Amino acid sequence: MRNSYLCIALAHEGRIRILACDSTSLVQEARLIHDLYPTSAAALGRVLSATALMAATLKNEDEKILVTINGGGPIGTIMTEAYGPYLKGFVGDNTIYLKYNDSNKLAVGLAVGTSGYLKVVRNMHLKESFTSQVALQTGEIGDDFAYYFAISEQIPSLVSLGVLVDTNTQIKASGGLIIELMPGHTEEDICYVEKLQKNLRPISSLIEEGKDLQTLLKELFPDVKIIERKDISYRCDCNKKRFMSALLTLSKDDLNEVLKDETIELKCEFCNKKYQIKREELIAYQNEVED
Ligand SMILES: [Zn+2]
To answer: What residues flank ion ligand 1 with Cβ within 5 A?
Structure first.
């Protein structure tokens, strides 16, 4: 399986910006880490693709994008984070396997639910952060991100996110496409994108056919110019110190409660790695950071 990657491209003399990714291997990695059932895998895969594409245009290496979705459906909370070229994420319930009866498609909207929110936090230089939140529209993720871009960023966008899941343990294809109408766009640009939207096949099917993104974008926009191409992958950046720092933010009473145990065991939600922190170790760390 080839490495996951994304492309940033411009078309129509810069009035249209296109972000596209092939996230197949990345979502496969997420599926293995979390033992995701098909609908859980499709939901997390779609959010991971969108998060990767949003992070693609960040200017600085230390900026992060955090996405949280909760629509009150059986999957619970979906959380993803992008930092540099790396992605990580998890879902509340990894065992969702729901389909729509009429189309036999994975029922992501039913799993996610529609009475809830999509929240995006842009974290800059570990200090400043900018939070924006919209109500979920369909829970199908693509529609919800399109709504987010329109409301929060005032960018009219076409968003296509898709994951093709095998019933065994394979992700057959996963990808994302965001087409943005940039400032200065014309009536013709709007018509062009609307026409495209009507005829656009799911991005995951196009990727499954083995098309690379450059070819795919050229078919959508004959004058497309790829300005950047970069590899992306699933990676968790957790470590013991981060967990100890989090414990030290607890209230005094809660911390004392935690310190009653000889060893504290914590699990990272993003990669399932377990950390054992000894009481003395935490106290020593507390003294170290307070000095
Ligand atoms: Zn981790």
So the answer is: 236, 238, 268, 270-271, 273
